[in-house]
Amino acid sequence: MASEWRPDVLGAPFEQLTLTLAPDDEGEVEATLVRLLPPKRRWWAPREPLDDVDVLYVHGWSDYFFQRRLARYWADRGARFFALDLRKYGRSLREHQTPGYITDLAAYDEDLAAALAAMGWSVDEPRSDRRLVLIGHSTGGLTLSLWAARHPGVASALILNSPWLEFQLSGITRGVISPVLDLQSRVRPLSTSPQVDFGFYSRAQAEVADPDDLMDVYLPWRPAQTMPVHTGWLHAILSAHAQVAKGLGIAAPICVLLSQRSAVPARWSEDLTRADTVLVVDDIARASLKLGSSVTVERIDGALHDVFLSRREARNEAYARLDRWVTGCLAR
């Protein structure tokens, strides 16, 4: 069930809608849909190339939607842009909840179904008059890839911004920890896994931020150092990676945007502002070929983990590559 559209924290003309979901073990659950509609077209004006497109964006881990520039890109071309803060993230996080916690990514089907219904879509009866484009960043890219595989024929295209399709460990190491993680996830699912995050990725984004179009980040929703990683959640991620490794068979065309290289954030250096410090991008590029039969991989020199938050040159290149793909695949 949805409430009424109201002003969003990003300011006008962004609006948000609260989506009421089924309660879980922690209590009440909600998701939040954000929208930016294209300017109303004058009757004499030519049609925009994407005026029959609805876009749904899903954020990554320890994240929420705040990318005004990305929303404007789609709205300026006539598309209706929507972004979903999943349960227990960002606008949807409640005091009684463990941030970001979930034990099966398929549980997000409810969030996505509610969002699509608010957008005028039905999973069971896809629209013939409009096209749906899914955009996912990092863990959101993993979530949407699995969703698209389970719901063939609904989305017309997927755009994945550094999707987390493979764990940043060797196959041998992963094989050793997986059985242990499986046991812990059943016995102590809320136990935290050790991690090292010095906040260098957040610092890199701040270092390269565009002074003419600053991103206002609300730290309680997107902390400088990542939220605690719980065993049950990590087990869900590894299970999802195993599904990707087997191949998902997505029929819709897919565009994967990645940095050209990765860097290990062991200590701060300017080099961290020109690389993905979260994922091993070569592994992601290989894993992306398991998603479907039509996959385009775009490697952006100097890009961060979120390619659209990179320094100006890399960001402009990312949008140019996106625009080329969108024009060839979606524009009419």
From TrEMBL:
Residues 55-215 form the Serine aminopeptidase S33 domain. Keywords: Hydrolase. GO terms for molecular function: hydrolase activity. Gene3D superfamilies: alpha/beta hydrolase (3.40.50.1820). This is Alpha/beta hydrolase.
